[in-house]
Amino acid sequence: MIVLGIQIVMTSIVYAFNDGSALSTISYVFIISLFLLLVFLVYQYVTKRGFYARLSNPEASMEPIFTSKSRRFTPIEQALQDLLVDQFRLTQQELHHAENRMNRHVTFMNQWVHDMKTPLSVIHMTIQDEDEPIFDSIREETDRLAKGLETVLYMARLDSFEHDFYIEEVDLAQLFGQFVKQNKRLFIRSQVFPKIEIEAHQVVLSDEKWLGFVFSQILNNAVKYSAGKSRSIEISTYMEEEETVVEVRDFGIGIPAHDVDRVFEPYFTGENGRQYAASTGMGLYLVHEICSRLGHRITISSEQGVGTSVRIYFTNTTEDHDFRRKE
User: What would the pLDDT profile of 254-283 be if each residue is shown by its tens digit?
Assistant: First the structure.
């Protein structure tokens, strides 16, 4: 269009210096040039309208961009189509290789965790009847190793979550009772004891295995951050509208206000993580991810120096969940 404008100006100047009716000739040239430009622009619009419309409305899928069979592609459309097809194939190959590497890594981690559980079980059996103080330290370290391996195992399984869960009625009193029984040494060693206020046979809809891991992480945090400051944690349930709420409350060091909104982020340890070297920042992240995939809402509130409350909300019917049950 710029070249055409220059051409019109130059032609008009030539006619202006020519003898005769210069004005009428210049007007005639000007009108003809604009008419040809308009015809060209209309042709471009008609032939490339579908092309521009398709580029302006990308689809979510990675199918070829141009699929029209009613007309032939222009050279630029065909070139772009060929380029995108090649890019699509290359991306598929890279994704396939990345998926294979990830699957091999997950398989290795699962196998390694199971292999490590065997020597830990042997150590537990070897020292279970020993009463000397040194064996208490060994039990404490093996318990930490076992919890760390469990976290690694659940982290590795998270990507295949939809293949490894089953929704059923979970008895909350029984679930917490089993946890207290299995972790009695932890409570005694930390001098922090649970107060359970849950009615007998109170049930929620969830996966017992994943839910057990969720509450083990929450309770372990409650005990760890209460040791030396408080001697109790409270576990209770209550109804809030149509939901059953399970609340775990401790009276420990609490969480600084500027860290509360970030506690569910992966690897975030915050200010408390600098005081406790064992903090990894993955516990509450896993808790949040598992609750989200199970369809449970989780909230946390805390006040530094006062304590922390973690609440998980359970709906009472399967209609409110988008679950895929394990066969």
Answer: 998 888 889 898 888 877 777 766 677 788
Q: Are 226 and 251 in contact (CB under 8 A)?
A: yes
H helices within the chain, ranges in order? Answer: 2-16, 22-56, 75-127, 133-157, 172-182, 184-190, 208-224, 257-260, 270-273, 283-294
Average pLDDT, the chain: 82
Q: What is the pLDDT of residues 67-106, one digit of tens each?
A: 555 456 677 777 877 888 888 889 889 999 998 888 888 7
Judge residue 294's burial from the number of C-beta atoms within 10 Å of its C-beta, 0-12 exposed, 13-18 middle, 19 or more buried.
Answer: buried
CA distances from 156 to 97, 101, 214, 218, 249 (A): 18, 13, 15, 19, 29
CATH homologous superfamily for the domain 170-320: Histidine kinase-like ATPase, C-terminal domain (3.30.565.10)
Flag whether the pTM goes above 0.70: no
Residue spans of the domains in the chain: they are 2-87, 170-320
Consecutive H or E run containing 245: strand 243-250
Beta-strand relationship, 307-315 and 193-197: unpaired
Structure tokens at 232: 């109790």
